[in-house]
Amino acid sequence: xxxxxxxxxxxxxxxxxxxxxxxxxxxxxxxxxxxxxxxxxxxxxxxxxxxxxxxxxxxxxxxxxxxxxxxxxxxxxxxxxxxxxxxxxxxxxxxxxxxxxxxxxxxxxxxxxxxxxxxxxxxxxxxxxxxxxxxxxxxxxxxxxxxxxxxxxxxxxxxxxxxxxxxxxxxxxxxxxxxxxxxxxxxxxxxxxxxxxxxxxxxxxxxx
Length: 208
Prior knowledge:
This protein has 208 residues and is of the alpha/beta class. The chain is built from 8 helices and 9 strands. The protein folds into 2 domains: 8-77, Arc Repressor Mutant, subunit A (Orthogonal Bundle); 83-196, NAD(P)-binding Rossmann-like Domain (Rossmann fold). The protein has helices at 8-22, 33-40, 44-52, 66-77, 92-98, 136-143, 154-166, 193-207; strands at residues 30-31, 64-65, 83-88, 108-115, 124-125, 128-132, 145-150, 171-174, 187-190. It starts with 7 loop residues before the first helix and ends with a helix.
């Protein structure tokens, strides 16, 4: 398919379609955009537009061959070209993310980690060296870092984000509770663990 611009909102939804399709029983050979929309409580017109941005396999009144649609979505997400990634904030969560084996399948290569704590600076997490935050801009600018992962406390996150975007990062994976402000061409994906825990706690409280 010809390369086209895909909106941030569509990017957020596409992984949900892929996860849904992979959970379908093997005998589900064909699937329609309407069926996907109903299962995920989405608008069927929007689902059809989203899928058309990554696949031309849909047939009117028939839908998509499930295996082919999965393959189209995987081709969109999984890349052979590698982009450099850094992690800022090497507490337990930062260590866990640094040791993950999932990056390479998506075309990412974690090249360094950063922290302000002198007790961890100079140590290694697997093959990754932990560097001082003062070196973040120069390292990212020289190394062509495209994705920054932030696991710092809320009060430090925006400054770290600014440094990352100013040095050339165009995507931020944000595990802090801060609402980050970025240039229009930068994508922020929030994983707000505090908010998630609050929602879970409230649900359990109301169920008692």
